[in-house]
Amino acid sequence: MDAAAALAVFDERMRRGARPDGPGAWVERVGPVVRQTDPGGWNGVLWSDLEPAGADTEIAAQVRHFAALGLGFEWKLYGHDGPADLAERLLAAGFEPEDEETVMVARPHRVPAGPEPPEGVRLLPVTDAAGVDLVAAVHEQVFATDPARLAKQLRARLDEGDGAAAAVVAMAGDLPVSAARMELDPEAGFAGLWGGGTLPGWRGRGLYRALVGFRARIAAERGCDWLQVDASAMSRPVLERLGFTALTTTTPYVFCGPRGG
Q1: Where are the beta strands (DSSP E) in the chain?
Q2: Residue 91 CB: number of other CB atoms within 10 A?
């Protein structure tokens, strides 16, 4: 894979040309910034093309926009974004960085099928509210996320009925032990893999790989040309073995208010 060419496609389709990721969201380009606003979901800057002379002014404009709506937000800073000192400028403006992740992509049809789940475990496609609650329960335990908020967002996406979202949960009897989600944008050609959380006692048994393979097949069936993951340090080696290529890094900078001093 030509990583530079793939990164250019990702930037153009999923950042500069981003579309809303939920029914209550809107995306707009304001000068050199593309941002999403969603009172009930994710808010943040998806892409920017800042010059050093005007960077601080543009950062302040985004802070004012979200503050006026009473919303917290994040600035998704990618490793190839400019200017070179953008991270320092965000810190000075009151943002706090979260963990750095690696943007990785693969062609869905080239991802090998995952291993069979361990004996007694089955993969259950999520199609109703009960399944959504199972996904939320796993994510709450693994990622300490708000289960009610995640369930509401995932249910809304599935209720749209346009195939733009999918989820799967691994069940050991009646116990959900692993779960993952996917956001699909066939028009852009990308399917984003999210979640992929497994309960501690069930890790190391191939469930993460099985969930990736399961979602890759759905993405291919629904006409997506690319799978994309913001991979943690733990996930990256597994994804590399499945044929994913690293393109760049991404770090969420979350606005926490102006610094004193």
Answers
A1: 26-30, 33-37, 44-48, 74-78, 95-97, 101-106, 121-125, 165-172, 175-185, 190-198, 226-231, 245-255
A2: 14
Tell me how far apart the alpha carbons of residues 136 and 146 are, in angstroms, rounded to a whole number. 8
CATH code, domain carrying 199: 3.40.630.30
| Cα-based angle 239, 208, 178 (whole degrees, multiple of 5) | 155
Based on the fold, state whether residues 219 and 114 are members of the same structural domain: yes
Q: Could you tell me which of 105, 121, 147, 97 has the C-alpha nearest to residue 242?
A: 105
Please give the Cα distance from 191 to 224 (Å, whole number): 6
**pLDDT value at position 22?**
82
Let me know if residue 234 belongs to a domain. Answer: no
Q: Three-class SS of residue 48?
A: strand
pLDDT tens sequence across 23-51: 889 999 999 999 999 998 899 999 999 99
Q: Is the full-model pTM beyond 0.90?
A: yes
**Residue 236, domain member (yes or no):** no
Rounded Cα–Cα distance for residues 213 and 113 (Å): 5
Which residue shows structure tokens 């917290």? 72
The residues, ordered by sequence, that sit 6+ positions from 131 with a Cβ below 8 Å of its Cβ are 124, 125, 167, 169
Task: Identify the helix (H) or strand (E) that includes residue 237.
Answer: helix 235-241
Residues 52-81: pLDDT tens digits?
999 999 999 999 999 999 999 999 999 999
The pLDDT tens digits of the residues spanning 73-107 come to 999 999 999 999 999 999 999 999 999 999 999 99
The answer, yes or no, to whether residue 130 has pLDDT greater than 80, is yes
Same domain, 126 and 78: no
